[in-house]
Amino acid sequence: MTLLLQLFWLAAPILLTGLVHLTVMKRDWLPALRRTPLDGGALWRGKRVFGANKTLRGAVVMIGGSALAASLLAKVADGWLGWSVPIEFARAHPAAWGGLLGFGYIVGELPNSFVKRQLDIAPGAMDRGARGRLFWVVDQLDSLVGILLAVLPVWQPSLALVIVSIVVMLVAHPMSAWVMVLAGLKDRVG
């Protein structure tokens, strides 16, 4: 049971904030932040470092939203449900925990974006063949790796939790994308 509760505290703030972020994108809220790319328009070998889709808006929403979501979830868990948050740092500092999750999520996606830009793979596009399948797996797991690395200074997950997290991401990430497409929140899976 502890494993499932820890998985919940890793995933729930990001999932809730991801839904908020989709709404922010669909309604084009915070347009000034949308126009501010994380790479500042910088080029490396004549190509964008991360591309125009990695913006300050995404970073602000994911980091700030995850901090807020973790704080609210901690209040609900403690006050209404009587749960004990199973991660000491998340229990003591829920906003900081959520902020770390959001930061890890954003930073985890950047290396993959960099490689894709250097290989001339458009943002959101899929490559073909074996390289396309490799990028699909990386797309499912890059943010998880970033999250796990971000929380490492304050919490070391068990190997079992890491394995369960990987399996859940490989199944849940594409399934949630399909649901979001069907609900009209996303244009496509992938």
Description of the molecule:
The protein starts with a helix and ends in an 8-residue tail after the last helix. The protein has one domain (2-182). The protein is globular and about 55 Å long. Helices cover 69% and strands 2% of the residues. α5 runs antiparallel to α6. It contains seven helices and two strands. The model has no long low-confidence stretch (mean pLDDT 92). A hairpin with a 2-residue loop joins β1 (43-44) and β2.
Provide tags for this entry.
190 residues, mainly alpha, two-stranded antiparallel sheet, 2 strands, 69% helix
Structural class designation: mainly alpha
Instruction: Provide the low-confidence segments as ranges.
Output: none
Gyration radius over CA: 17 Å
Helix content: 55-70%
Mean pLDDT: 92
Q: What is the overall shape?
A: globular
Short description:
The protein is built from 7 helices and 2 strands.
SSE layout and pairing:
Elements: H1 2-26, H2 31-34, E1 43-44, E2 47-48, H3 56-81, H4 88-92, H5 94-118, H6 129-151, H7 159-182
Antiparallel strand pairs: 1-2
